[in-house]
Amino acid sequence: MKAYDVKKGNVVEHNGTVFQVRDIERSSPQGRGGNVRFRFTMYSVPGGNKVDASFDGDDELKEVELLRRQASYSYRDGEAFVFMDDEDYTPYTLDADVVGDDADYITDGLSGCFVQVIDDMPVGVQLPQTVALDVVETPPELKGGTATKRPKPARLSTGLEILVPEYIANGERVLVNTTSGEFSGRAD
Question: Are 39 and 53 in contact (CB under 8 A)?
């Protein structure tokens, strides 16, 4: 697979080691004819050693075969997150550093997740595209504020802070995009 096809969460082989891509920065050159460069923040699987690597868009990376098991979030065990396989109820335990920023989207009973497994070892989790979270704290709507679309900050039940439209009030459930971290609409 080409470097420009790699997405966050993909597992690739680089220099004989298996890595999971956690973050991608794209840099476009200013001059004509320059190649787009991608900087990947990757963690070795297993082990979790962090590596930063840069690639041209056309560089070839080998994608590693991994199992994707549909699972639901079950509970938190200390710093670890435990997901339960939806078919055979196998528990998959993932450390907080593996889950990373995705922890802000995980609520009790969250379903539609996919746990990534290599050699019977869970190495990552893919969350659903959107999750429903409760608004815990947001300023009240300003009267006459509907003429302009001004977003306001809102703190959600997991501690995540996002911008929401003015008409959203405390106690409402909102959909949040897990890729961009942005408001996606009202839930329910």
Answer: yes
User: What's the chain's length in residues?
Assistant: 188
Amino acid identity for residue 130 in this structure: T
Which residues, 6 or more positions from 101, have their beta carbon under 8 angstroms from its beta carbon? none
Q: Phi and psi at residue 98, in whole multiples of 5°?
A: -75, -40
Residues 21-76: tens digit of each pLDDT? 877 888 877 666 667 788 888 877 766 678 888 888 778 888 877 788 899 999 98
Q: Which of 110, 113, 108, 111 is nearest to 124 (CA)?
A: 113
CB 67 within 8 A of CB 117: yes
State the CB neighbour count (10 A cutoff) for residue 46.
12
- Map residue 187 onto helix, strand or coil: coil
Rg (CA), the chain: 19
Six token digits for residue 163: 């911008």
Tell me which H or E stretch contains 116: strand 113-118
**pLDDT, position 72:** 92
